Amino acid sequence: MEILVCVKRVPTVGGTIAVTPDGQEVDTRMSGFSISPHEECAVEEAVQITERAGGSVSVLTLGPEAAIEQLRGALALGAGRAVLLETDGREFGPIATAAAIAAEVRDHGYDLVLLGNEAADTGDYQVGIRLAHELGWPVATGIKNLSTSADGVVARREYRGVEEAYELPLPAVITVKEGINLPRYPSLPGRLRAKRAPVDRSSPAWAAEGLRKETLRVPASSKHQAHVLGDGADAVPELVRVLDELGILT
Amino acid sequence: MTVLCLVEFDGAGPADASLRALTLGRSLGDPSLGAVVFADSDSVPASALADYGVTDVYVIEPGTLEGYAPQAWARVLAGLATETGATAVLAAGTDRGNEVLAHLGAITGLPMAANCTLVTPDGGQTHRLVRHRWAGLLLEEAVMEAPIALFTVTTDAVSAVSAETAETIQVHVYKAEVAEADLVVRAAESPASAGGASLATARVVVGGGRGVGGADGFAPLEELADLLGGVVGVSRVVTSEGWRPHRQQVGQTGTKITPELYLACGISGAIQHIAGCAGAKHIIAINTDPGAPILAHADYAIIGDLHQVIPALVEALRAR
């Protein structure tokens, strides 16, 4: 099975998140970059499928040249080919992103495209679905269990205490969530191979979309310092009083 | 002039997340607020919807379209939007709401803004909006130019508020045209293998993090959650270590919770975890480290070892 996995380079945020003075992006002076946990799982799932059923995994990102770092990370985990859709630094909206990925899919003929359910940064929740519509393929989203056969996949997720199972013919688009697997760590041979692997490049066209970002800001802080009720088990009577006062013990 | 809102159910009534979406939909100020429900017309909770300002209910019955098929649901919304001349179509920012509205965006070729906290008409085809990025750790202020504004409403940052006066409600049974291709992807539903799916709507969540120490350390948390009528939620490290299943994860890549109380035990408070629990009304932290980031988000804290505090709390609650 020929699988394409789409990943996105995003800042690694730890204890805090800050915005640049012009309000246009996340301040990354103090942070590294990574892909989201959903996408780490998408790469792992693709590698596991090809280990079981044969085929190969390609990994794609749309982003600046620096995003090659994230492509190499996926190559080290077992992807065989990398594709950079290089941007000029402008943020592509979900419509332009899906169109650019669709062009790559049409050129190379994949059976399955995997994405994360949503990007960690923009959280648009729609690139996979728009991609499927561009291609005329079926799509299932938020998937946490995937099984494959020669002509289709069964994709499962839970919703409000109910398990939903979707049977999709191939080719198909699937967006996955963390929890579908536990991603492996890269091996040393994998890392060496990733370093040398060539990266295919193209530069898709940016296009304005009907939803336009003006500024980003950190929400008016709910940050304060907690009122300390006491130390250890001695504070339990005070905790019980607070729980009662908050109406939790009714 | 009408606003349409996809309404999901939780049991027999409208889901809390959908009531939040209706509250935002009502704030757009259109004279007509239509609820779109996929259900038997006998089971439509008309008075509950009227309380939230709904003027019209469009019912798509199982005879027309059975089960959950996201693309078909979006096709129905597209048809209804055209027939009613809708200025906006919205849904709750749930898995289903975001999925159906994304399909609607693709079908219509229009932009879709996920997880909004505020939407304001700004004349003509313009809406100004505020939406979540980074699962709510950042807010984006944006402008949408579109003949129909498509958006979803965050499940944890907009309150559900009923209308001052309930509307007189009209129920329309809507016969939708759905193509075979729209039904290729359709959910076969069965009860989930394990419970615990109530995390998103639980009234009390007892959270466990690295401080719990291992897979065998969760029994006291379960016991406490039972006593408080709640459920256990965990941090990402707990699921990455395989101590608990991923469905119990609270956070950006897990579940966003909106309980009355979140009791965070042995959780340091990584920002991705805060994204999942910021919708809690009250947060109480139990942590050995007085400098843990979670304390900056908690209302109250006990500085101490959860392995001593929780058994003592369980004992005190049992004694009441």
Give a description of the structure.
The complex is a heterodimer of chains A (250) and B (320). In chain A, helix 3 packs across helix 4 (127-135). Chain A has six helices and 14 strands. Chain A has a seven-stranded parallel β-sheet with strand order 7-11-6-1-4-5-12, sandwiched between helices. A three-stranded antiparallel β-sheet of chain A has the order 8-9-10. With 250 residues, chain A is α/β, with parallel strands linked by helices. Chain A has helices at residues 37-53, 68-76, 94-108, 127-135, 188-196, 236-245, and strands at 2-7, 10-11, 33-34, 56-63, 81-86, 112-116, 139-143, 145-148, 152-159, 162-169, 172-176, 199-202, 211-217, 227-231. The termini of chain A are far apart. The model of chain A has no long low-confidence stretch (mean pLDDT 95). With 320 residues, chain B is an alpha/beta fold. Chain B has eight helices and 17 strands. Chain B has helices spanning 16-27, 46-51, 70-84, 95-108, 219-227, 236-240, 271-277, 306-319; strands at 2-6, 9-10, 13-14, 32-38, 56-60, 86-92, 112-121, 126-133, 138-145, 149-153, 170-173, 188-191, 204-208, 231-234, 261-265, 282-287, 300-303. In chain B, helix 7 (271-277) links the parallel strand 15 (261-265) and strand 16 (282-287). In chain B, helix 3 crosses helix 4 (95-108) and helix 5 runs parallel beside helix 8 (306-319). Chain B is elongated and about 60 Å long. In chain B, 57% of the residues are buried. Chains A and B meet through helix 4, strand 7, strand 9, strand 10 and strand 13 of A and helix 4, strand 7, strand 9, strand 12 and helix 6 of B. Strand 10 (162-169) of chain A pairs antiparallel with strand 12 of chain B.
